[in-house]
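Lab notes, practical 5.
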Amino acid sequence: MGTKKVGIPSLIFRFFRRFQQDDVIGLAAQIAYFLLLSLFPLLIFLVSLVPYLPITHIDILNVIRDFAPGESIMLIEENLHQIMEHHNGKLLTFGVIATLWTASNGINSVVKGFNRAYNVNENRPFWKARTMSIVLTVAMITVFIIALLLPVFGKQIGLFIASSFNISTEFLHLWNTIRWVISIVIIFIVFLGLYMIAPNKKISISHALPGALIALIGFVLASLAFSYYVDNFGNYSITYGSIGGIIVLMIWFYLSAFMIMVGGEVNALLGEVKGD
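Output from the prediction step:
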């Protein structure tokens, strides 16, 4: 079926109508809640892996610091140090189970939102839907670990190239900025996989691509803008006291979830316009 020619104003109107009908704001809040619940079990899991990987807890913080607001980083760093002080073998098992369960609940909320965007029912058996959510969670955790390892190996590769070809130390500074680019690419891959697998509908790469790009751009811009606001204008510690860092973290998760849902709505709308 050929693509229907639709004007920009009509697309914008249909998008906002979908936005309201599919309760994007409510679903984003639901996803943010489960993301917050799964964060600290994920940190427990990652800290438990540190002795077996060529990384430190500083590397974990550096990856998060690329996007997270300053106040939330202080909260995460404080809890990470407490976790390391009480680290033992049992934490690894707890971290795996707690992370898989709470994070997969978040993925279930994403699936629910995407199915609503595509106007399809979730007719997959419970065990199959839950397994898919857990598999996606494991994939996202694996990608995060890769994001931790790449800068470590990247630094070694950069040192090798600089010493082998007698390149100045300025090259190493340039090489270190690649870590941020790698993080962006990894996030894009996660978004693309999410848009292709989560909905109860066969989605091609070309169909998932626009939403993944919009979600990535929106996530990066929202994260940087919110971080700038928190660091320069919004003093949440004065307003909320000791829970200020949690409030900041929750808002950041909400903005991230919101952008993911917007990308899903964009894909569904474009698919509707194309007659897919």
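Observations recorded by the TA: The radius of gyration is 20 Å. The longest helix spans residues 126-164.
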